[in-house]
Structure formats: C-alpha cells, structure tokens
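Title: Prediction job returns without error message
Component: structure pipeline
Severity: low
Priority: P3
Assignee: unassigned

Description:
Job completed but the reporter wants confirmation the result is attached to the right record. Sequence as submitted:
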Amino acid sequence: MLWSDFPKWGHWLADWAARYHTGLRDRPVRAQVQPGETLAALPATPPEAPQPIAQVIEDFERIVMPGITHWQHPRFFAYFPSNASPAAILADQIATVMAPQCMLWQTSPAATEMETRMMEWLRHAVGLPETFAGVIQDSASSATLAAVLTMRERALNWQGNAAGLSGQPRLRIYCSPEAHSSIDRAIWVAGIGQENLVRVPLAPGPMRAMCPNALAAAIEADLAAGHRPAGLIACTGATGMGACDDVAALCAIAQRFGLYTHVDAAWAGSAMICPEFRSLWAGVEMADSVVFNPHKWLGTQFDLSAHFIRSPADLTRTLAIQPEYLKTHGADGVINYSEWSVPLGRRFRALKLWFLLRAYGLEGLRQMIRNHVAWAQSLAQRLQAVPDIELVTQPILSLFTFRFCPAGANPEAATLDLITQINNDGRIYLTQTRVDDRFVIRFQAGQFDCTQADINTAYDVITEIADKIRKG
C-alpha cells in the first residue's frame, strides 16, 4: 500500500467507523464464535507476495468481525466500559499518523507539555489538590506497580533496586479482600511475594470497606514479628461490586505508621468530576498516589490511565535510569515522563484527552455519568421488585449485583443458567462475581452512547429469560 492509496482507504475507514458505531445495536454484544474458529480461518503461514488492501479488508469483515466482542456497544453492561468517543478516536488517528515516540521531552516537546497540562486539567476536574502531579500510564495495573515499587524502595531506604531483597526484612503490603488482582501481580513483579500481601478483613456495612481497626492490628502484629510494613492500597469502586474503603481513616493509620498509601479508583475515579460523588473517596488528599482510568468511564479509548503522585521525586528515584543516550542536554528543568513509568516508550496519549475535554466539556461528561448512575439505580429498583430476583448489593454509582433464586432451585446454578442464557441471547452482555461466596451477576452502566432505552432493554432481557427458566 502506497501513500497515494491512503486517501481512498482513509475515507473508507471514516465511513466504516461511523457505520460501525451507529449500527452496533443490530449486532450481538458478545462474540458468538466457538473457540478456535478465528484461528482456523487464518492461514498458517504469511503471504510471500503483496495482497490488495481490498482483499485484506474483505477478509477482515469475514474473519475478524464475527469474533469481536463489541466493547462500544450501548448494551455492554459487563466488566467496566472501555469507551471510545468520536473526538478521542479522531485524536488517536492523528497521533497514529504521526506515530511519535514520546519518551523524552526532546523526542516530542508538545506531547510532554500537553501531558503536563492535561493532567492538571484532570486534577482540577476531580477535585484533587495542587500538591499532586500527574502522569499518563497505560493502565491502572502499571500505576499500581509503580506505587508498589515506590513503597518497596522507601521501606528499604532506597536500597532495593541496588542490593535486591535478599537478607531484608519481609515487606508487608495491606489491602482489602475486594482489591483488584492487579495488586497481586504488582506484588509478584516487585519481588515482595504473595505471602506478604495482607488481606485485611472487611468492616460491616454495604460498602464492604477494609476495617481500619483490623488494619492497625495487622500492622502492629507485623512489627512485633519483625516484618517491615511498607504500604497500603485502598479501593474506591473495586471491580467486584464497587467496594469503597474509608480512605480518610486508612490514610490516617498509614501516616501513623509511616506507610505509603495508594488509592485504586480505576473505574470510579472518573465519576469524581461530579462533586456529589466525591464522598466515596473522602480523604483522598491524604494519599501518596491515586489512579483512575479515563479510558473506562470518561470517554477516551484504551489506553489512558491517570496516575497522580504527591512526591514525583520518590517515583523517579524508584524508576528513573539515565544512560547517556537518554539524557536531554541544554534544556534544564524539562520533564521526561519515561522516568515516571515502567516502560520506556510512550505514545502521544494526551492528545485524545485534549480533544475529549474540549469536544464535550466537563459538564457534558458529568451529565453522561449522572445519567448512567440514575439509570442503573432505577434498574436495580425495578429488578428488586421482580419475583425470584434478589438484589445482593445496592448500587454504588452505576454498579450493582443480583442473583436468581427461583423456588426449589439452587441459587448458584440458577444464576449461572440465567447469565449464560443472557449472554448467549446477545442483546446485552453481563459478567459475574462473588459476594460472601454467593455467585452473583454484575450490572454496570457506563458505555458512552448508552441511553435509557438500552437500560430498559436490559430489564426486558433479564426478566424475559428469567421467566423462561422458571417455566422450564
């Protein structure tokens, strides 16, 4: 393919993108293929000669599209959203055309300085104080890993990278049983070890929050045993059912013991552009770092994770490395964001955030989130009134859980049957979790183009299929 061919296919892509997004309601949400079906349709060896792009596109439609689960579908109610607004898509296409590698200020000054300003805009939007500086990471998993590595280095007086962990006291990291699995992986990668991730019991209450008294007791027990408490990871809107820790209480305990505190608000953090929801992370200004994903609920496509840090010097002391070929000479005071991240390479992610915030404005994005929350709460109330549907957890923002308990049936088997039939039906897509060892169905609203009618469709599908199962 030559640049002279590109305008034709670029126009095709723009038309295809608009048709795809506006026609998503006519497609099943979840891919309906069988395991191995796509693989079998792909040749075992690459072509030796060039093939026409028209043929490649035809094969794309025939082979790839049937095996795609449509994350941009307005009735995608599974996991959390991974949104892609038109403005952000346009920005990402521009960045892809230029394809800059933005690892250093000098490799694209505009990308670095836009990232600085966009993170200031986001910090303002969610109400964080100016004591935080921000960096764009690829995902919350990377931000959490960076936080855990910083916890490790601070606890070891900055000797972990140099001397390793051999012969050091056991480092201990504390989190809730509701915390995301990315925390476990960060503990592995950091060399701290799964046995040193302490799952602190929950306090009573609908938020399923970590118990502050239990946290203090766990830290004191570890100190008495000769271990070295290093850090705490608090949740705001955990993945399972939206659990929210008492951030203020946990940060106060962490400060008393000299622990680094990281707040994982990967999903719920975007909702903090609405001031009325900020009570869910009250006390966040006391944390050492915070992460949330604009690529989940705000409207930028994957990947764009907002990582805010109280002490960038601690982060760069943990991660920065400067061989001669990465030094920027003659430009004092510039930021090289590759020193704030585990990967060296960086894409121009800030551009899509700039386009998004300008194209929709904070008030437009607030209204979208408020709609999703109100619609999910309304759906939960409607389902609560349906015979044999048990609401297990009330909505936290736009996320709630329920199960199916028809008379004489095992609730776990019946709930599994219900979600299996719903997803095979294709009109909506839901996922599952466990709450106190009860198998439950998760529902969350968050897709950028979702409407009240899509929520009504969810109610119709759930109740219709539940009624079909009841009748056998």
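Comment from assignee: result matches the submitted record. The domain at 1-30+69-84+360-472 is CATH 3.90.1150.10 (Aspartate Aminotransferase, domain 1).
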